């Protein structure tokens, strides 16, 4: 009545609830491709080292190929009773090829097997994300090139602060996504060592060749400690941490889109492809995709938290707790991928309402700093004094019910007699942004150069 794979020691099968809590097949069937790749590498090594015969290895490989086809075709008979993907595949192999199937698990445990499969899956997911994130950067760069000189209000505290260019704003995200890609690349580099051959926890007495299986699976080499190999999940945590940070960036941009396409702003219009209507209010066009990007970060951060908590109390080496490592990754990484692709789509389709941006850019005395800078530069005042005088000019403008840029020369000179006609020119938003030529500044010429630099970098990869 016991399990086909370990039945020897058991007199009865698991209880119904035990089967329900123990089975992971509904989740880890997603590792089928990786599990077969791992087994292929393992059996080739077993044959090469003479641990199994070449004939048995050939039968096993052929059986695994058949199984891969069945999984692909959706005809594979997944069974809950067989607990997980590893035992489902091994049991099927036995059905297909008989006795040699029992030799596949020589010098291997499900502990190193699952660590290997999971790493392969996470590695694939990270590779996919990198390409999608590069695509998102390209979308931002294209908008930045087009809007290098489009003036918008820059905010601090969501209060109008100084004019910036929309291109500059887009390039800020290109930088953030570049660091996100860097974190993902770091995680990938660090994780790319093979757990296979660590066996249950202590290594094996068989003369295995771990270098061989590591190379076959695209790893840089084998992990150096068998206990570490089967019980560490920091590779998954690191992937989730990188994902959570990346998702946070996307969420901030999503929040900006939601604000920008609201009626009081109207900075941008989202395409029909990324918005929805209302079932009752005919006029509505809602930024649902942006809102969902903003919301999904909750799941991604939650996934990181989940796995941190799962792992924090697990003594070395493997414990079944670690079976709970997969749902957070299977949820979070595809969710991030979707968010990246949705954001790239929204950026690509964006209609920028330059007039609305420009109109708001000069509201709120946004060029006051430029007058203070002028007083420093042309009159030679210390910045603090210039700041004070400009503050009085803002007050005068407020009293007159206008913007500082709309004060007449006479009105300005009433504040401070040292102000001349020349000062009026620095109060325009275009002059303001054009003057910000410092490295990393918002001046259109800077933005063009930076966009070009990014275009070249992204084209080179
Ligand atoms: N389904 C298990 C997991 O996902 C595979 C490893 C089981 N190992 C064990 N010793 N029970 O973690």
Automatic annotation (TrEMBL):
The keyword Amino-acid biosynthesis applies. It is found in: Cytoplasm. Its EC number is 4.3.2.1. Residues 365-434 form the Argininosuccinate lyase C-terminal domain. Pathway: Amino-acid biosynthesis; L-arginine biosynthesis; L-arginine from L-ornithine and carbamoyl phosphate: step 3/3. It holds the Pfam family Lyase_1. The keyword Protein transport does not apply. GO terms for molecular function: argininosuccinate lyase activity. InterPro entries: Arg_succ_lyase_C (IPR029419), Argininosuccinate_lyase (IPR009049), Fumarase/histidase_N (IPR024083), Fumarate_lyase_CS (IPR020557), Fumarate_lyase_fam (IPR000362), Fumarate_lyase_N (IPR022761), L-Aspartase-like (IPR008948). It is an enzyme of class 4 (lyase). It catalyses: 2-(N(omega)-L-arginino)succinate = fumarate + L-arginine. One of its GO terms (cellular component) is cytosol. Residues 8-302 form the Fumarate lyase N-terminal domain. One of its GO terms (biological process) is L-arginine biosynthetic process via ornithine. Its main location: cytoplasm. Keywords: Amino-acid biosynthesis, Arginine biosynthesis, Cytoplasm, Lyase. HAMAP family: Arg_succ_lyase (MF_00006). Belongs to the lyase 1 family. Argininosuccinate lyase subfamily. This is Argininosuccinate lyase. It comes from Acuticoccus mangrovi. The lineage of its organism: Bacteria, Pseudomonadati, Pseudomonadota, Alphaproteobacteria, Hyphomicrobiales.
């Amino acid at each position: 009545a016991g399990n086909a794979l370990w039945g020897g020691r058991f007199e009865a099968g698991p209880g119904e609830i035990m089967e329900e809590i123990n089975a992971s097949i509904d989740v880890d069937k997603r590792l089928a491709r990786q599990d077969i790749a791992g087994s292929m590498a393992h059996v080739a090594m077993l044959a090469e080292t003479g641990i199994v015969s070449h004939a048995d290895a050939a039968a096993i490989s052929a059986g695994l190929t058949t199984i891969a086809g069945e999984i692909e075709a959706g005809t594979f008979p997944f069974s809950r009773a067989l607990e997980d993907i590893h035992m489902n595949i091994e049991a099927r192999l036995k059905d297909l090829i008989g006795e040699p199937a029992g030799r596949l698990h020589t010098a291997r445990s499900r502990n190193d097997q699952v660590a290997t499969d999971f790493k392969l899956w996470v590695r694939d997911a990270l590779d996919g994300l990198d390409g999608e994130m590069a695509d998102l950067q390209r979308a931002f760069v294209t908008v930045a090139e087009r809007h290098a000189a489009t003036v918008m209000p820059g905010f601090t505290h969501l209060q109008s602060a100084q004019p910036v260019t929309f291109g500059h704003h887009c390039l800020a995200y290109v930088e953030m996504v570049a660091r996100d890609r860097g974190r993902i690349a770091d995680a990938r580099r660090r994780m790319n060592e093979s757990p296979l051959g660590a066996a249950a926890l202590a290594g094996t007495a068989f003369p295995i060749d771990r270098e061989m299986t590591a190379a076959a699976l695209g790893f840089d080499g084998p992990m150096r400690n068998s206990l570490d190999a089967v019980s560490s999940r920091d590779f998954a945590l690191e992937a989730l941490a990188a994902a959570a940070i990346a998702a946070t960036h996307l969420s901030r941009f999503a929040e900006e889109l939601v604000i920008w396409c609201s009626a009081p702003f109207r900075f941008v219009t989202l395409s029909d492809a990324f918005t929805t209507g209302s079932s009752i209010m005919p006029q509505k066009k809602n930024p649902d995709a942006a809102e969902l990007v903003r919301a999904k970060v909750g799941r991604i951060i939650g996934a990181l938290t989940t796995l941190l908590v799962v792992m924090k109390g697990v003594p070395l080496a493997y414990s079944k707790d670690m079976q709970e490592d997969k749902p957070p990754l299977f949820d979070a990484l595809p969710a991030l991928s979707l968010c990246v692709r949705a954001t790239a789509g929204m950026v690509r389709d964006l209609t920028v309402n330059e007039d609305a941006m420009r109109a708001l850019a000069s509201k709120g005395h946004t060029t006051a700093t430029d007058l203070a800078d002028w007083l420093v530069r042309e009159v030679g005042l210390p910045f603090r004094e210039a700041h004070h005088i400009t503050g009085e000019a803002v007050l005068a403008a407020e009293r007159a019910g206008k913007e500082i840029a709309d004060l007449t020369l006479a009105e300005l000179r009433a504040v401070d007699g040292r102000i001349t006609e020349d000062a009026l020119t620095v109060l325009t938003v275009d002059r303001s942004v054009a003057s910000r030529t410092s490295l990393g500044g918002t001046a259109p010429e800077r933005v063009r150069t930076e966009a070009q630099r990014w275009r070249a970098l992204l084209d080179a990869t």
